[in-house]
Write a structure and sequence with these properties.
Pnp Oxidase, Chain A; six-stranded antiparallel beta barrel; alpha+beta; 3 helices; 143 residues; 21% helix
């Protein structure tokens, strides 16, 4: 049930903030994403030459967030997640590309490639269900 609520929140949005860290130096970047729900992974497009990709290739443990921008306290919603970054695995290539281009058709003109983050931990704060209400999910087995 927690995973379903978190997945529903993720699907309602389209921009994530990705946090990487190499040599004790953190870095953040933003990108469009899709969720492949049955794999519980985020798929995004980015160039291999970018700092966040270079860092994630060195340290595959990443974190990130997805938020709803609002000034109304009772409407605050936000997700923090941790996961494992990787190249898009072969078994997901066609499915991920099709879903990504359906949501972001202009991405077809990009020379960048698709990457994934397999979510292992997620915490959703949703004030619509009570101030500071948290829904936490974590995988039992790490990939």
């Amino acid at each position: 049930m927690e995973r379903t609520k978190i997945a529903n929140f993720i699907k309602e949005h389209h921009v994530l903030t990705l946090a990487t860290c190499v040599d004790s130096t953190p870095y953040c970047s933003n990108m469009f994403y899709i969720l492949i729900e049955d794999e519980f992974c985020l798929v995004f497009l980015s160039g291999k030459e970018t700092r966040h990709i270079a860092e994630a290739l060195k340290n595959q443990t990443v974190a990130g967030s997805i938020v709803l921008e609002t000034e109304t306290v009772g409407q605050i919603q936000g997700l923090q997640f941790c996961g494992k970054f990787s190249k898009l695995p072969r078994h997901l290539r066609i499915k991920a590309k099709k879903q990504y281009l359906k949501r972001f058709p202009y991405a077809i003109f990009s020379g960048a490639q698709l990457w994934i983050i397999k979510i292992h931990y997620a915490k959703l704060t949703d004030n619509r269900f009570g101030f500071g209400k948290k829904i936490i999910w974590h995988s039992v087995v790490s990939d």
